[in-house]
Amino acid sequence: MINLLFFYVLFLVILVNIIIKIIERKTRVREHQKKLQEIQKKYIESFKSGKIEELSNIMEELTKIYSKMMKHTIIITIFGIVILIFIIFGFQSGFYTVNVNNTTSILITNPILYNQDFAIYYNNSFLGFYHANYNIITLNGTYEPRLLSVNVITNTLPFNLPIININWLNPLILYIILYILSQIILLISNIIYSRFIKKSKIDNKNG
Fold it and tell me: DSSP letter string over 73-116?
């Protein structure tokens, strides 16, 4: 069964991609990349032709473009770090431990983690996988709360990847995997669009 945690992380990946695309449009990074290629080509041509006097102006243009692209890179980097911090604290916090009648219960205060799966460790020893009963995980026996380690996990992925389709896959690793996969899919889609669909539209228009 695929639990809700997977869909939470998937939604976050989609949201991040959408926001990054919006940032790219606002910073016009695609236009800057294209202009950068043109300026670099112009620089090489001027250098080869011996037009040294033009190189200074070209370098000024290059510096301006690099500055704008660096600004975009800094914005994306800060945004990425914020998302990773959110995942670490948002998906790995929100529970506390109580001992009652020779049993230890872990009470979950983070609604995202209700009815999720957890890997429980005690004093660095693995106790097992536990499924939360709404907002409570009940352990057999009494454990010292400070020695307990509670790690939320995703049990099953909706695609068959034996190397990573394992029980201890946590939200951070899941996010990284899904984000990389989404970037690969977008890259392939862009290649297909630019080489076939877009080219076909241009050829039909010119024809």
Answer: HHHHHHHHHHHHHHHHHHHS--EEEEEETTEEEEEE--GGGTT-
- At residue 15, the 3 state secondary structure works out as helix
CB atoms within 10 A of CB 86: 12
Residue 159 phi, psi (nearest 5)? -135, 155
C-alpha span between 188 and 158 (Å, rounded): 21
Both tokens of 163, joined, read 């190397």
Cα-based torsion angle of the residue sequence 126, 132, 133, 139 in order, rounded to the nearest 10 degrees: 20
**Strands in the chain per DSSP E:** 95-100, 103-108, 117-122, 125-131, 136-139, 148-153
Q: β-strands 136-139, 148-153: how paired? A: unpaired
Residue pLDDT, tens place only, 151-195 = 888 766 666 655 555 556 788 888 888 899 888 988 888 888 777
